[in-house]
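Priority: low. Protein: Quinone-reactive Ni/Fe-hydrogenase B-type cytochrome subunit (HydC). Input follows.
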Amino acid sequence: MECKKCGSVAVERHSKFVRSCHWGIVVTGIITALSGMQLSKLFGFTLFDDAYALHIRMSFVFAGLWTLFMYFSIAEEWKWIKPSRIPYSIKFVLEEAVAWIKGGHVGDPRAYDPRRREYVEKIIPSQVLVFWTYVLLTAIIGITGLAMLYPEYFGPVYSAAEKMGLLFGTDNSYAFIRGLHRLTMFLYATVMIMHAYAATIFGTLSSMISGYRREKVVSDSGRGSREPADG
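Result:
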């Protein structure tokens, strides 16, 4: 129902499928990270009796959920996160950084047209960068993890790792792959924390729980974002 006074309308932003995948990724990602850190003895803690078996199982569940989430993103949200929007996203991030230093914020481009029953802009532009960063890190951590688990099937990965390892002073391809796997995990955790912070600041965290969010209403005359999603 539209709120005339406040100029907003309640919209189902995230379906049950998306919310289920999202929180499944969060939970399995945390368990996978903790079990991996226990295996690596990075912080000297012990949470699980069989961290290795749990790490492997959760990794495959995590990958399955990510596959489902990617399918939805490509099928339903492509116009908002497609690579051609990355320059727009970078410009937005730079403008937001400058505004933050000055003690303000850039205008929120998200808006909904209730007459057409569609978004004019659904996401904060910086989410485009976040999405593709997740894709890149997931690919790296997945390939390195599978290479360590099934080395007999990943000869080319070990060959590339051996050559790249020489740049860092090691000819041990397995050690390089393991180190890259760990580094990617820390980068992943960093992006997740930043993502959670941004979701809180921009008011999207609650919608990932309930599915709904009050979106700014625009008329046909005010239609359009700073960068059209389909342009």
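The two ends are 30 Å apart (CA to CA). Confidence is low (pLDDT under 50) at residues 1-6, 221-226.
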